[in-house]
Each structure stands twice: as structure tokens, then as C-alpha cells.
UniProtKB/TrEMBL annotation:
Source organism per UniProt: Virgisporangium aliadipatigenens
Top-level taxonomic group: Bacteria
UniProt record similarity statement: Belongs to the bacterial solute-binding protein 1 family.
Gene3D superfamilies on file: Periplasmic binding protein-like II
The protein, known as: Sugar ABC transporter substrate-binding protein
Length: 422
């Protein structure tokens, strides 16, 4: 699955680099300051990654047209170098004014004391999807603004489901299992529902089931990975491998997931909005009519993973007011829609989804509905290390048939030994 891998980072680097920078490193203790009235002025330096880094400079010309005394200077940074570059800049106190931050980096970088709290007089929390806003909150203080988002749905072959006697998409765990079984036994799919069988990032496929079952990852700053809800969800996840409804081969790593879906070897899988274009391209003319998307099935709730990227302002930047005014502009609903049309990144601002280009699209509208209840892991400094432990236990259950209760107990023990970093 394409995008979740680009957010994975080597975590240990920043901890060493920022430890001696002489800041208050408690995180979550700052108070937001107001932003001066009037138009933005001066140079605003921005670091952006991926396609966003390539396109933002031209896109920002509309901002400088509204703010003629301001200049936006964008530096494109490769995702695989971004984490270390930001950490080094914080340690040297040579940060830009604004930078994109992967959502799983927030706890780590907020703890350094380098991030400027979000000014609530300029940026309104209620404008954003709740799960997206929560990714920028550390210790009760918002340190970033969601820029774009993504979540996960179930992609399924409508034509094969119909041939297998499935007349409506699954809404519950039981119905999802029934569809997977029908796709395998009646429609000839090798995997009725492909689930990632462990490995890097498999927690992003598993946690929606845990959250939908009422599980929490932490409580009172302590891990709760060995709850009955978590164990039951992992047992359910493992049942697809036990019943041979999903292959234990990681199709994402092999790069064969899309082709397997196009040929019908895979009847359904979980992924994000980028797969709409990938499947349409690889499936050829008319294939878009053969597949659909459906929200995660309900147990106690229908909850999926939320990812994306945030925008943060640094205390060591030289143009705080201009930086926040630029972020406020990027957060306007109409600007978010224009940005979506430029790079196809889904808007984090809820009102943007009223635009016909999103609300009228049968695929994207489902993602918009799922975003209303999507969740992210806690913004703690150690999440990537904990996630690795979760990935390892998912793999033991999927590939070796390990007991789910024993696996969640092992997750809890490993996570507790790592700690939350606070």
C-alpha cells in the first residue's frame, strides 16, 4: 500500500539531535499567541515533501497575489530525508517558518519545544475532521494544522460479489467474512479479502478493526494493548488467514496487489484513495465500473485509520505571523478544493467536501463519510517503535496462527518496556 510507507521514519535520530537544544521539552505546556491583524508581509520559508513540495510554489502565487508584500519560498524535501532534515534543523535552531510534518511525527517534534502552538484566534478546530485535528494535539495543546488527509476503505469487485450472490456491500464483521468467503468459494478468488499479513505498516490495516471493537491504545498515558477488545479484534483479523480467505504473501511488498485485484485473484482489500487511480489505470477501459468502495464494517462503530500530513510553524522561524497567515489561507475551504484539484490530496477541512467535485464522486464521497469517524494512533514520541512490535505480533498471528490473546499480551509487554516517551 503506497502512502503509509512514506510516513514511516527512523525514530531514534531526532531524540539524539534535539536532546541538547536547551528548550522546555515537556510539550503541551505552551500557550498559543495571537496573530497580528492585516495582510502577510515578508518572506515565508516553507519545507514541503513529495508532490506537495513540487507543486506548492506555483500554487502559492495566489496567496502572494492577495498579500503583495509577502513572498513564499518553498523548498522541496524528499520524504525519505525529511525526518532527519527537520530534526537537524531543530537542533541547530535553523528551521524554516513552516514545514509539513507526517502525522506520526507530531509527538516527537512537539516534545522538543520547537513548535509554535496553533493560534486559536486564526485557526478553528471545528473546521477540520476531528480525527485529523487530533493528530496535531500533544499534551492538550495543538501544535499543527491538518493540511490533507487520507483514510482506508474496503475496495471490492462488485461484479464478482454479484456473481457470488452478494447483493449489498458488507456492513458488519459477519457480513465482511461472508463476502470474503463467497468471493473465494463462489467467484474463484484466491483471497476473498486480502489483509496485510504483518510486516511494516500492517498496524494500519489491523487497528481499524480494534477501534471498531471499542479498543483503546492508551489510557492515562499507559498502553492498553492487551484489552479483551484488542484481542478479539486480532482474533477476527487472524481468522481470514486461518480460514484461508487471505494469502499470507505480502502482495504490497511484491507490487502485485493491483494486478491481483484486476485479474480477480483478490476479491477485496483495504487501502486509501490513491488506489482509485491506480486500479483505473491498470484495469483499463471500463474497469472502474467493476469495483466499488465501502466503509469499514461496524462492530461497535465503523472506524478507520486516518493519515495525511500536517503543517507546523517553528519558534525559530523568522516570520511567525506570515507563516500562520499562509496556513490559514491553505485551510480555507475553497483553497483546499483547488489544492485537491492540483495534487488530488483530500481536504482536511470538512466544508470543502460540500464541493461537487468531492461530494458528487461515488468513490470520494465514501472516503468523506469515513473521515468523520477515522482515528489515528496517539501522538507519542515512541509510536513507530511500538508500531513495529504490533506489526510483529500481527505477523505471528497471520502466518504462524499464534493465539491472539498471547499476541496482544506480547504487544503490551513490549510497548510498556518502550514507554510513551512522556
Amino acid at each position: 500500500m503506497r502512502r503509509h510507507r512514506r510516513y514511516a521514519a527512523v525514530l531514534a535520530i531526532a531524540t539524539v539531535l534535539v536532546a541538547g537544544c536547551g528548550r522546555d521539552t515537556d510539550g503541551g505546556q505552551d500557550e498559543a499567541r495571537s496573530v497580528a491583524a492585516g495582510k502577510a508581509k515578508g518572506e515565508i520559508t516553507v519545507w514541503a515533501m513529495g508532490t506537495e513540495g513540487e507543486k506548492l510554489s506555483d500554487f502559492a502565487k495566489a496567496f502572494t497575489a492577495e498579500n503583495p508584500d509577502a513572498k513564499v519560498t518553498v523548498t522541496a524535501v524528499p520524504w525519505d530525508a525529511a525526518h532527519q532534515k527537520i530534526a537537524s534543523a531543530i537542533a541547530a535552531k535553523q528551521t524554516p517558518d513552516v514545514s509539513m510534518l507526517g502525522t506520526t511525527w507530531m509527538g516527537e517534534f512537539a516534545k522538543t519545544g520547537a513548535l509554535d502552538p496553533t493560534p486559536t484566534d486564526l485557526i478553528r478546530k471545528d473546521d477540520f475532521f476531528p480525527g485529523a485535528w487530533a493528530t496535531g494535539v500533544v499534551g492538550g495543546t495543538a501544535y499543527a494544522v491538518p493540511w490533507y488527509v487520507e483514510t482506508r476503505l474496503i475496495f471490492y469487485r462488485k461484479d464478482l460479489a454479484q456473481a457470488a450472490g452478494i447483493t449489498s456491500p458488507p456492513k458488519t464483521w459477519e457480513e465482511l467474512t461472508a463476502m470474503a468467503r463467497a468471493l473465494k468459494e463462489k467467484a474463484g478468488a484466491e483471497s476473498g479479502l486480502y489483509l496485510q499479513p504483518g510486516g511494516t505498516g500492517s498496524w494500519q490495516s489491523f487497528l481499524p478493526f480494534a477501534w471498531s471493537n471499542g479498543a483503546e491504545l492508551t489510557k492515562d498515558n499507559k498502553f492498553t494493548l492487551d484489552s479483551a477488545q484488542m484481542s478479539e479484534a486480532l482474533q477476527y483479523y487472524g481468522s481470514f488467514f486461518k480460514e484461508k480467505l487471505s494469502t499470507t504473501t505480502d502482495l504490497g511488498v511484491q507490487g502485485s496487489l493491483e494486478q491481483s485485484f484486476v485479474t480477480g485473484k483478490t476479491g477485496a482489500f483495504i487501502s486509501g484513495p490513491w488506489h482509485i487511480g491506480l486500479l483505473s489505470e491498470q484495469g483499463g477501459a471500463g474497469f472502474t465500473e467493476k469495483f466499488g468502495v465501502v466503509r469499514m464494517p461496524t462492530r461497535k462503530s465503523s472506524t478507520s485509520f486516518i493519515g495525511g500530513s500536517n503543517l507546523a510553524v517553528f519558534k525559530d522561524g523568522h516570520n511567525r505571523d506570515g507563516a500562520w497567515k499562509f496556513i490559514e489561507w491553505l485551510s480555507r475551504p475553497e483553497v483546499q478544493v483547488r489544492w485537491y484539484r492540483t495534487v488530488t490530496s483530500l481536504p482536511a477541512v470538512q466544508k470543502s467536501w460540500d464541493d461537487p467535485s468531492l461530494a458528487g464522486d461515488p468513490f470520494l464521497s465514501e472516503f468523506g463519510e469515513q473521515l468523520k469517524s477515522a482515528k489515528a494512533p496517539p501522538p507519542i514520541t515512541t509510536w513507530e517503535q511500538v508500531a513495529s512490535a504490533v506489526d510483529a505480533e500481527i505477523e505471528r498471528v497471520a502466518k504462524a496462527g499464534a493465539d491472539s490473546a498471547a499476541a496482544t499480551k506480547a504487544m503490551q509487554e513490549r510497548a510498556s518496556s518502550i514507554g510513551t516517551g512522556t
